[in-house]
Amino acid sequence: MTLRVLAIDDSRTIRNLLRRAMEEAGFACTTAEDGAAGVACFAEVDPDVVITDINMPRLDGFGVIDAIRSQSHNPTVPILVLTTESADALKARARQAGATGWIVKPFEDAAIVSVVRKVTGARG
Amino acid sequence: MTARNAIRDTFFEECEELLEALVEGLAQMAVGAGDGETLNAVFRAVHSVKGGAGAFALEALVGFAHRFETVLDGIRAGRIALTPEVMHTLLRSADHLAEQVEAARDDRAIAPEVTAGFLANLYAILGEDAPEEPDGAGDDPCFGFAAVALDLGPLGAGAGLGADGAGFGVGSSVGPGAEVIGFPGPGPREAAPGWRVRFRPLPALYAHGHDPAALFAALADLGPVTVTLDLSDLPPWEGFDPAGAWLAWTIRLAGAVPEAAVREVFDFVQGLCLLDIAPDDPPAGPPAEPAAAPPLAPPPRREARAPEDDPAAGPKPTLRVDLDRVDRLINAVGELIINQAMIEQSVLDLTLSSEAEVIGHVEGYRLLARDLQEAVMAIRAQPVKPLFQRMSRILREAAEATGKQARLVTLGEATEVDKTVIERLADPLTHMIRNAVDHGLEPPAARLAAGKPAEGTLRLSAAHRSGSVILSLRDDGAGLDRARIRAKALARGLISPEADLTEAEIDNLLFLPGFSTAEKVSNLSGRGVGLDVVKNAVTALGGRVAIASVPGEGTEFTISLPLTLAVMDGMVISVAGRTMVIPVASVIETLRPDPADLHGLGPQDRVLSIRGRFLPVIDVAQGLGLPARRNAAQDGAEGPPLLLLVETESQSHCALVVDEVHDQRQVVIKGLEANYGAIPGVAAATVLGDGRIALILDAEALTAQRPPADPAARPPFPNAGVSHASP
């Protein structure tokens, strides 16, 4: 079955990059333009993995993780956080918030696909 | 890769929006109107520019955006006070960011020392010294943009283990002893030194969305693995907590795999499990350090928050399409309108009775075509706001470069103008703003002496007026020094000493090529180009530029442009046996005057006396250099000529002599410049309903450059044959 990815980022550029990377890897990708929209379509999309930016209007990435981990139908879905910083502090914060993993922006298509495969176990 | 190029385009489009939001937010902050969310929006704008720029390896842009963002973050956290100086630096930084984005889009490089100057200001706010590296990116430990350390080696080569991890569910594995599951892996099967991984998840591992099966699959990508499940910790069924972590595994990985690669698999789960990675059967090589994996308490939960807003309350939905597609549509609609005109003509030629049904249908067709055309043109229309915002940046730069104080007031930002027009207006407007600051506004001391505030005001406005878009730029400076303009024009041989010029004519000397009144060549507007560049650019768009000035009070430049570049309402006339079109917007009335109202003025010129005014009478055929009409017959036996009273954008009136007025219709404008060249007095051409080609007259050019008293003295139009439409 096709892996379903929900990508949440307020940057259209990043959303497009994510969508293309995911679709080229054979995954189905739904995008949302901010945290609130992402949480709203989480139940509907029922993704196998969520990729979310941190800094977003309306609801930030930490809020997204919270909402999914504490209030959704699938609290153990893998959630990957996009970050421009590779600082350990930020990773620790993401981890503490309940993120499964992180991806440092800018990302190579291959790298992000590999991270998605890594946390989902999905193989091409 | 074209897909990536398309996304790159998207990035730059998005940057425009982000920069717009940035400037808007900063402007609010500058006047103390912003709140926390304003600052957040400003921060996000810079952050998103940085994020996107990183994806395209635009390092200088990333480096600058990063420093900018750090300052904004400091302000947000209250570490940096928002003083007027800091505000100024933010505004200038936003300007520079916009410049960097433009440079990146055009594949230009900005001189590093320019960026270094802006960076130094940001560093000063941060209380840091600028690093040696001007881009500030390379030496920042928390700012690694070079590589993403997530390469997991060969991917997709491993044989399939489903996402659901067959055999790893608790239920299916419960049983005495251990289950052994083999993962077929890639790579050589021979017994190479391998690794033994002991792995015991903590409950938090599952809570963080990790799936042990996924980790094993990742290991299997490195080499053949054998996984042994350890069920020894499984509690009795009574009181069993299914959310607990009861299972442990030992994984044997064969093959010469670097330890780092193995550890990387467990990168994300560090601290969420007990992990021990050791060489399997360690005969040779240094023994690996046992992994220190202290058990961690489950992470404290953050306060649960509900999604804040109704997602439906987002921005108005929009659809982004290629401009090419829109232009194809516009072209098709243009052809449709021509086709409609042809059908209408054919039906008329049938001379049916006026009750014929087809006449009603044709009329309906005409209305529909017109609606369609308006709707399609509206797609290309965009508000001038982004253009105006860019101008505030130009103004700040200009003020800084000249040591003057100036602010920009904008009006009518929501006025919508064709996208191409907006794009092509950027350069002339930039030039006008620089010109206004450099030449229009006085230095602060002089302003104070004249009883004006030290800070000059430039007022930039846009409005629609009867089929045109009017842009005006007004300064409250000293006004034009007409004596000096005249002297300069004289010195340059542009006018003769005895020329008797009106104020408006003197003002218009500014638009002559090469004219410049700057005493010294400043580094701002005196770049060897004058306002003629502005005029050429505006003319190329089918527009006009006019100038008005009051000494001591300021100068106003007014640009008027056609609303659309594609279709206009035209009056079909004939001149010297040729069919021509004149824009309906410029025609006030048509009349055949009483011969007594026509007065000769010299051997050639005539004026029309109408309602107490005298208007010059201009013979279109003569103006265009067409063969003379049957003048004597027209004026004598057949009565006075047919006149079109026209008004131009510069509010001057005149009467054009034409042979016949046919009808009024929408015409599709087809530019001549690309196929033929610019002809003075002719704005463009069109195709009429009967398939004939007709020239569209340029009323302004016809009236402004009316033939002199002695036609032999100079050609009918002074610029004939040498005029260029410069983009």
Automatic annotation (TrEMBL), chain A:
Superkingdom in the source lineage: Bacteria
Keywords: Phosphoprotein
Biological processes, Gene Ontology terms: phosphorelay signal transduction system
Sites bearing 4-aspartylphosphate, chain numbering: 53
Keyword Phosphoprotein attached: yes
Domain Response regulatory: 4-120
The name this protein goes by in its record: Two-component system response regulator
Keyword Phosphoprotein applies: yes
SUPFAM superfamilies membership: CheY-like (SSF52172)
Spans traversing the lipid bilayer: none
TrEMBL record, chain B:
Residue ranges occupied by any HPt domain in the UniProt entry: 1-104
Pfam families documented for this protein: CheW, H-kinase_dim, HATPase_c, Hpt
CheW-like domain span: 567-708
One GO biological process term: chemotaxis
EC numbers: 2.7.13.3
Catalytic activity: ATP + protein L-histidine = ADP + protein N-phospho-L-histidine
Keywords, comma-separated and alphabetical: ATP-binding, Chemotaxis, Kinase, Nucleotide-binding, Phosphoprotein, Transferase, Two-component regulatory system
Positions of post-translational Phosphohistidine modification: 47
Gene Ontology molecular functions: ATP binding; phosphorelay sensor kinase activity
Biased composition (Pro residues): 280-299, 708-718
Function, as annotated: Involved in the transmission of sensory signals from the chemoreceptors to the flagellar motors. CheA is autophosphorylated; it can transfer its phosphate group to either CheB or CheY.
Protein's recorded name: Chemotaxis protein CheA
Organism of provenance: Fuscovulum blasticum DSM 2131
